[in-house]
């Protein structure tokens, strides 16, 4: 599961939003590589005026216990 968080926004959307997931089946001891892609559209939220917007700023992506921050300009 891939979650995004908008760290600074004019309107506070959900703290953590599910953006992608892939259901996989693993045997005991098996590992598998899963790739996710996101776009600026995936970072939109609904503002106070019921409009879908994406704002530049700092974001965080979380997959399992891994986290990475990035800036959208």
TrEMBL record:
Span of domain Fibronectin type III-like: 1-67
Protein's UniProt name: Fibronectin type III-like domain containing protein
Lineage: Eukaryota, Metazoa, Ecdysozoa, Arthropoda, Hexapoda
């Amino acid at each position: 599961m891939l979650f995004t968080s908008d760290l600074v926004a004019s309107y506070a959307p959900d703290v953590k939003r599910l953006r992608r997931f892939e259901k996989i089946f693993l045997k005991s001891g098996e590992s598998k590589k899963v790739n996710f892609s996101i776009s600026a559209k995936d970072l939109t939220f609904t503002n106070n005026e019921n409009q879908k917007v994406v704002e530049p700023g700092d974001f965080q992506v979380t997959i399992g216990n891994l986290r990475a921050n990035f800036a959208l300009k």
